[in-house]
């Protein structure tokens, strides 16, 4: 919202969700047309080994680039402990279907986090000054925003794994599941984006939790919940990375020993890399434009256009012809903008409004009179 402009950002969020829905169904249709059951085999049959190699790199990099949980916790000991105790054991599962119930817990925790963000837009938002350009329709960094939104919706790298785990996998059943899932996802995303932006407007950071004060106990609980959600969902991303390595280097199968070794290496390198990064915004942008954009916009469209024998006027072909060049623009222009104009980052420092003469805005146990007094001091200090 900060990059695109609030009204345009809402429209773009709907558009990216629609494209995601369409391309997820398109992938499975492409698999049915080509007689393949994995994203890699689909691209391999459509574009040969060069396409297969390019897709393998993108699928490998997307979940591997960084483990975002670690950007929020900040204490290296807790990071290593949670990785060894929880993330690594869950990542050793061979069957992605077994992670379904675990992902359900993550969804419930996401709902709790959303409730916290919604509560703070009411209690904290009115006391933070709004930036001058907070409500303009569009901003020049809208393409960067599309990259971040693509990152939020990307799940194409494991859609064949999920499709194969269905009891009776059919294109019609998959389409119904995708429609419902995407609708829920865009609803949650809009609530997060709207509440976060209404609270902080132009001060919004790439990592929304960086905007809240550290002495806010309710938000601290939200940070904990988010850390748990990443611990529970990251194994699915590791599953995809491991599958890419197995397909490229080991013919698609791994022995028990190799399975353990490769999983440990993936988790270790990703964790070490994430310990060195404290800005989530640039990770979201680069991952979105370099990996998510081609996986959502370009590759599904290109595969379908080459495989389908439908007439050119067919709705799926028309939409694919629109998605493909837009994805190329988002990828190229978004990368240049992300490098030349990265998002602001606090590097772990608290925001200015967290220090109103050592008063706290977020301690909800204080009286209304005390809160009013503290806010008056804050407003005076800000405008001075």
Automatic annotation (TrEMBL):
A GO cellular-component term linked to this record: membrane
UniProt-annotated location(s): Membrane
Pfam families in the cross-refs: Aa_trans
Topology relative to the membrane: Multi-pass membrane protein
InterPro entries given in the database record: AA_transpt_TM (IPR013057)
Matching PANTHER family: AMINO ACID TRANSPORTER, SODIUM-COUPLED NEUTRAL AMINO ACID TRANSPORTER 11-RELATED
Its job: Putative sodium-dependent amino acid/proton antiporter.
Name of the molecule in the record: Putative sodium-coupled neutral amino acid transporter 11
Gene: SLC38A11
